[in-house]
Amino acid sequence: MKHLDEYRDEALTRRLLDELTATVTRPWRLMEVCGGQTHSIMKTGLHDLLPPQIELVHGPGCPVCVTPLELIDKAIALASRPDVIFTSYGDMLRVPGSGRDLFSVKAAGGDVRIVYSPLDALKIARDNPAKTVVFFAIGFETTAPANAMAVVQAKAQGIDNFAVLVSHVTVPPVIAGLMQESGVQVDAFLAAGHVCAVMGYWEYGPLAEQYRIPIVVTGFEPVDLLRGILMAVRQLEQGRHEVENAYERSVTYEGNQPAQAIIQRAFELCDRKWRGIGTIPMSGYRLRAEYAALDAEQRFPDVGAIQTAESSLCISGLILQGRKKPFECPAFGKECTPQTPLGATMVSSEGACAAYYRYGRYRDAIAEAEKKSS
Fold first, then answer.
1. Across residues 57-76, what is the average pLDDT?
2. Please, which residues bridge with residue 88 across strands?
3. Which CATH number is 1-315's, of 3.40.50.11740, 3.40.50.300, 3.20.20.100, 1.10.10.60?
4. What is the pLDDT of residues 115-128, one digit of tens each?
């Protein structure tokens, strides 16, 4: 398929690997921010093909994974109300809260519905005026425009039985947060191509300069990823720290300005909790004051007051910060599997733990455990 197969070309992939091998002279640790990139790396086996000096660590770029536990508990509390129809993308339904998940609420009789767009949730609100329809608005900047449009349309059309539970986060502040954390060792970042397709990459220059770290906008296919890795390694080897774009077919410097405009119309920046990481200042979106009536946490104050402590059993926070690999978790592939997940990084289709398990990396955990016991 044109524009897809050409970025999976074996000969070109091997040439890029050869060039990378000829370029690298010392160990480097690169973090891919996006969970979709992590899955592509695992699926294609790129991590096993790279020169041994290059280590890829997996960042917090999975919106399901970084949604804090208390937001899941708030979603469960809302979905349990008889006067609410709770709508969400499907991958959120299996994310465990502190006691159960949204699937359990649905099984117990709660009106929980999977939708493919926030505009679907808006239609459900029109069709069910006697109930409040709540949409679980999660994600990075990629999903923010559609969620913002739903909010703007709901107000413009006078649909007053529609609300959103907001858990939006943004990429640049988490890069800064990771660089300020002691114990996080990252030499370069591969920025998420789909986020930059919306936001551009004009925000990353100050980060690269302040932390003296290369940032390369990267796509999702093997050729895309290797181009991004090669560009980052070249910078590191040459002592440069710049922002470069290895995903030119989809990303421009200024990004999608109409999409940015609708985000700014509905949302404003705020401090936001990240699951396993903690609160990062000005790293998320919340509804602007003129749309406060559509904020589910304000509409249902008892739900908004819920606070939940994170479980100490799951090490997903360490994984999201690149401090640990999934197979280093004692529960990985044993107590924690996609069928019996302990945390969001195993539940999410973009989670690092799910990627390692799906593509056979749980065998590394078994081998490591056997090695330590022998």
1. 87
2. 114
3. 3.40.50.11740
4. 999 999 999 999 99
**Is pLDDT of 1 > 70?**
no
Q: Give the whole-angstrom CA distance, residue 178 versus residue 277.
A: 9
What span, in angstroms and rounded, lies between the C-alpha atoms of 182 and 205? 22
- Residue range 177-184: average pLDDT? 82
Report d(CA 364, CA 330) in Å as an integer. Answer: 11
Please give the C-alpha separations between residue 331 and each of 216, 334, 356, 372, in angstroms, as whole numbers. Answer: 34, 5, 13, 15
The position carrying tokens 């449009």 is 149
Strand order in the sheet with 278-287: 112-114, 84-88, 132-139, 162-169, 278-287, 267-274
How far apart are alpha carbons 273 and 26 in whole angstroms? 36
> Are 86 and 102 contacting, i.e. CB atoms less than 8 angstroms apart?
yes
Hey, where are the domains in the chain? 1-315, 316-373
